[in-house]
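Backbone shape codes
____________________
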Amino acid sequence: MPRIKFFPSGITAEAAEGEPLREAAARAGIEIEAPCGGEGTCGKCLVKIISGKLKTHGGFALPPEKREAGFALACRASVCDVDAEVEIFSAGGDGRFAEDEISEFVPPDEVSFLIKTLTLAVREPKAGDGFSDFDRLVSAVKNFVSFDGLRIPLPVLSALPETLRASRTHTLVYYIESGILQIVDLLPRDEIDFYGIAVDVGSTTVAACLVDKNGKAVAARSEYNGQIICGADVISRINYARKGLHELRQKIVETINALINSLCEESGADPSQIYHFSVAANTTMVHLLLGINPEYIRLEPYVPAVYDPPLLTAGELGLSANAAAPVYFAPSVGSYVGGDITSGLLRLPPQSADEVNLFIDIGTNGEVVLCGGDFLIACACSAGPAFEGGGISCGMRAASGAVESVEIDARTGEPRFSVIGGEAPKGICGSGMISLAAELYRKGFLEPNGKFSGESKYIREKKYFLSENIFITEQDMQNFIRAKAAVFSACRTLLSGVGLSFGDLKNIFIAGGFGRYLNLGDAAEIGLIPPLPCEKYVYLSNSSLAGAYMTLVSENNRRLQAEIAKKITYTDLSAEPSYMDEYTAALFLPHTDGGLFKKN
């Protein structure tokens, strides 16, 4: 069999002729990032053929001169019948996010987890009474709880003889679903510690919060979604799922389990003490976590397999916790408006009946909800990965080495920039792109159509150079303009649909990790958001995780979330004739209608 040697690691792997290069690398423990999902459009999986040969299948992101110089895209290359040596190039980034702030996660007055605990005194066995150990347990439970039936996990049943005889009192951990009492655990003591976990499964980032039995958030962590190497956005992952559904499910389970292990190490908790999960995720992420083919989400009539999954168990999903722990999923309301949004809406402050607000979650996907006294109207737009650094020549996620803000000399075009972590720049992240675009436009080096203009040594060959190795192209800028146009036009479409404008809004709530770094002035300069007074904008932090926490600790919030989901009217922008007109009009800096961006 042919042998492929990967540099700089020096790892060698045997591969079958015709095997895709990325698969050969993955078997060798080498993950090659492909944010476009293997479509050959992002260029992030660039490799150089040092010796031997590979069979290449094109790829729009690879210009002819690169191919002639021996470069290839790993997602569009396969093994030939000879040995080869290839060098792998990284897009940069350390794959680490700061911990989410959890100080705002305040337990309600009455903490009500889905799971309950009950202290029992099970009568001792007696010869000749005809009662088994299981019968005695059921009889004891019936003294306190009414139910139509009872289910017990096999591990708990297997240990039942020893458990009942180990103590005179016991703690039953259970929940009731559709009249059936579901036993989670039975412990031979009357005081136990237990934990729940709230999880926000984002396309780019997964965040989790560990909560003790009193509802207190004791630790929180976040990490990149391991699926990123298979595609940067939901569409590319839906495409990837045609051949790699099991791989996508495995990667998200591994990501969540790594977070669980980190949370337990930090807090001293044992994974077996985790008895409840509350998960918020978009519709596609739910399908991939459950191992359900998401293909029909993107095919007309755009009907997913499930909007509101039934309670499942940690064991069924492969999560590192008590196997019988119930997993609650926030309900989705549309193919592209999921449980992350119904969770985020829980985070909104109380609103009066006569006010109208806008909720925007800006990320790889953009979701918008118009919130009135008696209505909720939601839509989603495909912003693409530009706000996360994807689809940009030197783009990267917001990690150490990423350019996050830029200032440009109006006379020379010389850039001055700040870098996350204070180290040498490796690339530019989403907030850096907003800052750069705004500065270039503001200082006269960028036309409204995204083309560079003016005389500067930093502009050459249709590129603007931040340094010798970090640059953006006119194509990058136009990709970015399309992303901002998608978000702004989604907002305008919802507002115009009910006869309102931005001026009618009391507040615009901005959610998502990206919003934390959003410079409002720069964002308005390029036409991502309207130039309203700053006090009208309210940042909600990770509202999806906050909502998952709220449903974890409160039965009232779980009911409220169900009511919110039923109340939302989902608008499919692809079926709205006005959306494309709005989108086309927004494909300029800041917009073709200059009146929209007159500063107050």
Notes: Confidence is low (pLDDT under 50) at residues 90-100. Residues 388-472 form one domain. The chain is about 25% helix and 25% strand. The radius of gyration is 27 Å.
